[in-house]
Specification:
The chain is an alpha+beta fold and 203 residues long. Helices cover 31% and strands 38% of the residues. A hairpin with a 7-residue loop joins strand 3 and strand 4. Helix 4 packs across helix 5.
Length: 203
């Protein structure tokens, strides 16, 4: 079952929509302003600049998310992974990356503290679930604040799956940046798996 992400309310404004070559020659950028309250909890503001003259569908995107509790994202997380966020204060989130039809690259900043997760419990597996939860929390970077010597900036680099919509591309680009901060070990494993899949496609 896919994770649930919703915006309530949601506002979109699009500027300079045209396919007129003479107008594109004067101004090749179409701007999309996005404002939405993600999960009904926190405002997400983003700007997307699309290069109308590009033959590779190039665009850039930047955005910020206001402070929010980590538990607000459980409707999404619980359907994607067998875990639940039990605590976490996300104080600042900002992202900025460029992309084309094939790949995205950029950075993501996420400053948070008190992050904790719990592995979903199955029938007759309460003790095992508690043990796995302890291990999972040990692997997570429970705090990422500027005054911490272990402070990390997330790296965004994601190859687009051509069978998926643009929204999937944008989300996965941000997700990669988040994982590189919150769970660097999982990020290394994920990169290795993506490289292996890429090599398999070449064969």
């Amino acid at each position: 079952q896919p994770g649930t992400v919703f915006f309530d309310p949601l506002k979109l404004a699009v500027y300079h929509v045209t396919n007129d070559s003479s107008l594109i020659a004067e101004n090749n950028i179409m701007r999309v302003d996005f404002q939405g309250r993600i999960m009904g909890e926190a405002n997400l503001d983003a700007e997307i600049d699309i290069d109308l003259a590009s033959t590779h569908e190039e665009f850039s995107i930047s955005g910020t998310l206001e402070p929010v509790t980590g538990t607000a994202f459980n409707p999404m997380v619980e359907h994607l992974l067998p875990v639940k966020i039990t605590s976490g204060d996300i104080n600042k989130t900002a992202f900025n990356f460029k992309a084309n039809d094939d790949i995205s690259h950029g950075e993501l900043i996420m400053e948070y503290e008190n992050l904790g997760v719990e592995v979903s419990k199955g029938k007759d597996h309460d003790k095992k679930s508690r043990l796995i939860s302890l291990v999972a929390n040990g692997l997570l970077n429970g705090k990422n604040m500027p005054d911490d010597h272990k402070y990390r900036t997330g790296t965004i680099r994601f190859e687009r799956r051509q069978d998926k919509a643009i929204v999937n591309f944008l989300w996965n680009s941000c997700k990669i940046g988040i994982i590189s901060i919150v769970a660097p070990i999982a990020d290394k494993t994920d990169k290795a798996e993506r490289q292996e899949q890429k090599e398999e496609r070449k064969e």
